[in-house]
Amino acid sequence: MVWGQGDGAGLKVIDTAIGRVGALACWEHYNPLARFALMAQHEQIHCAQFPGSMVGQIFADQMEVTIRHHALEAGCFVVNATGWLSPEQVGQITPEGKLQRVLSGGCHTAIISPEGNHLCPPITEGEGMAIADLDFALITKRKRMMDSVGHYSRPDLLQLQLNSSAHRLITESAPVQPMSPPSLPESLFLSDTQPLFS
Question: Phi and psi at residue 80, in whole multiples of 5°?
Fold first, then answer.
């Protein structure tokens, strides 16, 4: 896994040969503004990634609710991938039983339709491939019923402001010119014969 400093320049839906694709990772899915930014760009396929092999069944349950909700709200397909650690891999990470339990379960690799349904059986343990045909007519069907970026978004009341500029760690500026000291009128200087206080 590679960590980087994300910014609004990457919060974009991309046109591809298979449709308009957007993506978020893990708990970015709990940021409704980030999800709305992708919905407003008419995302058709959402790629979700969660680490998996964490915290047990509760993490898998929450993940399933999250991806099914996004599919329904966005009216798009969600393809979710989770990692899986075998018992041997968990043992290599830590020998402690309590920590090993934290690194087990919590997987839910799945493909969800715009109606919130599983299109193939989810993978909740071990390695495997989730495969499904995506019928884009389901997007139209869902959006005819409810389109979250249509009039239901109430643009007369609510708007999202997105800073889509790339964040830069270094900004170069023009060299600073040295300032010359200001010139003061001679009357401000005291003469040798003038008393300081009278």
Answer: -110, 130
Query: 72 and 38 in contact (C-beta within 8 Å)?
Result: no
Domain contains 42: yes
Contact 69, 112 (CB under 8 A): no
Measured over the CA atoms of residue 142, residue 65, residue 27 and residue 94, the dihedral's sign is negative
- Domain hosting residue 141, numbered range: 20-153
Is 166 within a domain? Answer: no
Q: Are 103 and 122 in contact, with CB atoms under 8 Å apart?
A: no
Cα–Cα distance, 69 to 44 (Å, whole number): 15
Report if residue 46 sits inside a domain.
yes
* H or E segment to which residue 139 belongs: helix 137-145
Kindly state the tokens that stand for 87: 């018992």
Q: For the segment 136-195, what is each residue's pLDDT rounded down to a tens digit?
A: 999 999 999 989 998 888 888 989 999 888 888 788 888 887 877 777 666 655 555 555
Provide the number of structural domains found in the chain: 1
Asked if pLDDT for residue 1 goes beyond 70, the answer is no
35 within a domain of the structure (yes/no): yes
* CATH at 131: 3.60.110.10
Q: Are 136 and 77 in contact (CB under 8 A)?
A: no
Q: Report the distance separating Cα 8 and Cα 14, nearest Å.
A: 14
Segments of the chain assigned E as strands = 14-16, 19-25, 45-50, 77-82, 110-112
* Helix (H) or strand (E) run with residue 14 in it: strand 14-16
